[in-house]
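Hey,
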Amino acid sequence: MFHTFKKDISQIPLPEKFTCPFCYSPHLLSLMAANQVQEYIRSREDWTEELQNGKMFGVLVVKKENGEIGFVASFSGQIQGQNLHDYFVPPVYDLIVEDGFFKQGERQITEINRQIEDLQQNPIFAEFEAMTKSAEQQLVRQKELMKQAKIERDKKREVTDSEAELASLIRESQFQKAEYKRLQRKLEEQIAETQQRRDALQERIDQLCHFRKEKSAALQTEIFEHFVFLNANGERKSALQIFGDIMPPSGTGECAAPRLLQYAYNSHLQPIAMAEFWWGKSPKDHIRRQGSFYTACKQKCEPLLNFMLQGLDVEENRFLKTYDLNGKIHVVYEDDVMVVVNKPIDVLSVPGNIPQPSVWGWAHEKYGDAYVVHRLDMATSGLLVIAKNLDACRKLQRQFENREVKKEYVAVVDGLVEQDEGTISLPLRPDFDERPIQVVDLEKGKMALTYYNVLKRENGRTRVLFRPQTGRTHQLRVHSAHPDGLGFPIVGDTLYGTMADRLYLHASKITFLHPVSGQTKVLCCEPNF
C-alpha cells in the first residue's frame, strides 16, 4: 500500500502543518502523489467504463518510522463492486464480506422488498380502483339525470296550476332521490367485499414496511458500531459515538480521507499532507472536473475528520478565522436611513453557525439598530446594503423580492469563455445531504437566470460581467462552473472549482430606489483584482 515517489523529492521541503481538509491548496508532494495515482488509474483499462461516471480519489503523503517519505492512496465507495484493490488502502470496515452481517441483513431487506412488491402487484388493488371509479361515474351520471329531470319539472311547474300534476312532480322528485340512495347503497355493498380484501393486503404491506424500516435502522446502527475510527492520539471512537445523537448519513466512513488516515494510524505512518481529486465525468447535478482537487464533504466527513485529526498540527481553516472588522469595512454610501458598504472577502453578511464576525454585527455595533437587506456569500466581496430602521429595510427588501434591484458582479473564471455574451438558465436547489452546495435540478430546482458579458481574456482566464436576474444561493458560482453554463469555475471557488488566494467574485454595481426619497441610486465599487 505504501508507494515511493518516482521523482526525487529530497529538495522539496515538507509542509510545516498537516493539510486542513476543508480549506487547502494541495502541497507539491500531494500533487506529485496524485499524478502517480492518475497514471495508475489510466493503466486500468478494465476500470475505464466504470470511472466514466466519476469517482473521488485521495492521496496521503506519509513518513515511515525510518524517515522514508512516500504516499498511500484511496478511493471513495467501491470499484467493480469491491472495497479491496492492491494499489489502495483497505476500507475502515469492509461491509461487503459475503458472510458478514451487512450482506445477510441486506439479503433480508431485499426479501422484504420482494414480498412488498408481490403484494402491491395483487390484482385486487386494480380491481378496487376500477370498481371505485365505475361507481363514481355511475353516481355522477345519475346525478346528471336527476339534474336534467329537475329542469324539466321546473318548466312544468311554471305552466301548470294542477294540484294533481304538481303532486306528481313531487313524487317523481322523491322517487329519483330514493333511487339515487338505493344505487349508492348497492354500489357500496359491491365495493365493500373487495375493499375488505384490499385493506387486509394493505395492512400486510404496512406491517412489512414497518418491519423493513426497523430492520434498516437496526442494520444502520450495527454498521456504524463496526466503523471504529482512530486519531493521532491513539483514541478510538465508533461513528455512532462521534456523531452523538444524530444517526450518521448513509455512506459515512467510506470516503477517501477517513480511509487514508485510518490506514496511516494503523500502520504507524506519520501523516504529512493530504488531497482529494475527482476522476471521470461530472455528475449531472453536481459540479466536478476531472483532475481537480476538492475539500472533504461536510455531512459525512467533517465530524469524522474533526476527531481523526486530533493530535496532528493542522493548518488553520481560513473560513473559521476570527478578526476585528473595524477598519476593514469601507462605507461606499451613507445617509440617515441606510448605508452601503464594500464587504471584504471571508466575512459573513449575517451571523452563521461558525463563530465569525459579520457585517450585521459590525453594523449593530456602529449604528445600533441595523438590518442587512440582502446577502453576499462569505467568500464574495462587494456592495452590501444595510438599513438603519425597519421601515427602510422592508421597502428595500420589497424591491429585491420584486426583482426591481439591478446587480452586477465582476468575476474571473478559470478558462477561456468562447461567446462574448449570453444567457444561462439552470434551475437550482440545495444539495440536502451536503449543504451549502447547490445542484442543478431541471425538475425540482427553482428558476435561476443570469446574463453575462466577457470583459477580457488573458492567460487562460476570462474576466466576466454577470447580471443575475434572480438571487439564488451560489447562482453565479454554479452557473459559471456547470458544463451547461460557462463551463469554467470562478477562480478560487473551493466548492465548485479549486482553491486560490480568494474567490474572484465581486458585487461591483447596484441600482435601486431610495427607500425615502424614491430617487434612483446607482452605486459602484470596483474589485481589487
